Amino acid sequence: MIQTTQKPPNAQLLRIIRSALLMGLVLFGATSWYVHRQPGSTGGDVAPYLRYAVMVVSVLAIAFALVTRNQLAEIRDIVQRAPRVIRAWAVGEAAALCGGVSYYLSGDASWYLIGLLAMLVVLALVPIERNA
User: Fold this and answer.
1) pLDDT by residue (tens digit) across 1-57?
2) Residue 103 and residue 71: Cα distance in Å, rounded?
3) In a 10 Å sphere around its CB, with 0-12 CB exposed, 13-18 middle and 19+ buried, how is residue 86 labelled?
4) Helix, strand, coil % (nearest 5) of the chain?
5) Helices 11-37 and 78-106 meet at what angle, rounded to 10?
């Protein structure tokens, strides 16, 4: 039988995860910007429902972050906080990715910025460690 030892999450590990999430989003935005900057590149006509999806997912991500923040208010142990924090960040990243896909398909960066702003709000609302 194979036994694995898993280290409990710590604040440093969560900072690395947070940085990786942000860097992926920034690189996706930079790639979209580069693609649409090329001569002959035209943004496609993105269906309006995708733009609505960016707004809906952004609002839901912020609402989820607020609920998570309230749940984390009394939890100080990083082992108990980590799964909830990562879950909230993942929902925030979904908003930014929806915006990124809209930007990539249409060439309109405003939807990417809305999704990225939602992600940054989620990161601000759900910190790694509880403020004393």
Assistant:
1) 566 666 667 788 888 889 999 999 999 999 988 988 877 766 667 677 888 899 999
2) 34
3) middle
4) 75, 0, 25
5) 0
**Separation of alpha carbons 92 and 90, rounded Å:** 5
C-alpha 126/C-alpha 102 separation (Å) is 26
CA distances from 106 to 3, 80, 99, 102 (A): 49, 41, 10, 6
In whole angstroms, give the CA distance from residue 10 to residue 42: 45
Separation of alpha carbons 90 and 105, rounded Å: 22
The whole-angstrom separation of Cα 30 and Cα 84 is: 29
Q: How far apart are CA 81 and CA 37, in angstroms?
A: 42
Phi, psi of 44 (to 5 degrees): -80, 170
Share of the chain above pLDDT 90, in %: 48
Q: Answer positive or negative: Cα dihedral of 90, 118, 122, 35.
A: positive
Q: Which two tokens stand for residue 17?
A: 């995860």
